[in-house]
What we know:
single chain, 3-stranded antiparallel sheet, 6 helices, alpha+beta, 316 residues, 6-stranded antiparallel sheet
Amino acid sequence: MNISYSWLKQYIDLGLSPEELAAALTSIGLETGGIERVESIKGGLRGIVIGKVLTCVEHPNSDHLHITTVDLGLGEPLQIVCGAPNVAAGQTVVVATVGTTLYGEGDETFQIKNSKIRGVESFGMICAEDEIGMGKSHDGIMVLPADTPVGMPAADYFGITSEYIIEVDITPNRADACSHYGVARDLYAWLIRNGQASSLHRPATDSFSVDNHDLDIDVVVENPDACPRYCAVSLKDCKVGESPEWLKKALTSIGCRPINNVVDVTNYIMFAYGQPLHCFDADMIEGGKVIVKTLPEGTPFVTLDGVEHKLSENDL
């Protein structure tokens, strides 16, 4: 179980460093396998700054390259050869300085060096969004608002955050710790027991209300011994789309891939409070009925990753 240090601090007042926290968790039976520092953008955009293109002329030995001078707030402008079709004088741009490491797919890296491009020296790189991990477009360089401060670290402009992730080895008897709130609750007891002031912040439910108790979907439980209780909430007028940044960052930090707002919020609740959830699109349920049952031993079942499994007669 990956525990986010900052996510955990949403539920508990915590004065422990990540290392002290790991030691405390181990002492209460939640042994930690390691601490890892992760960033919302790989590399944290170190060495990347905001610049202003002062001049832009065509490269004499190329039909698509340009020679630019770029002010990075360091006094002397840098000469940078740029191949982007949209580069122009007066733009505020993102520049990777010499020595900066850019990260591609997987473990691929690229270091910016002094270089000669078609015989002209270049001392940096004006970046497209995909080259710094801020998007997928490679149509041209990123152009920022004109009033963006020259010399500002790109990490500050884009709000790049760093995070500590603590890997907790959950034993079978500690299902209560399969969530951030569950860990916070146990840690709170440890802090109080050891004379440290702390507060546990329980999730607020004041704004939750039920408009009616009519479900458009019937729920039929065919095996009440295996499933004594099934709960459902129906939400109307939902729009499936991209999740907000805070939600995507929270899931990404612990190794969960964001998909869309509906799927992501169910995963968030599971990792936050330990309650597994699943969303159905009511319009796609044949017969308007959710049926809870077991199936014969060996029934094939294909999961979302395309892998076929064989169910046991005890699988719901």
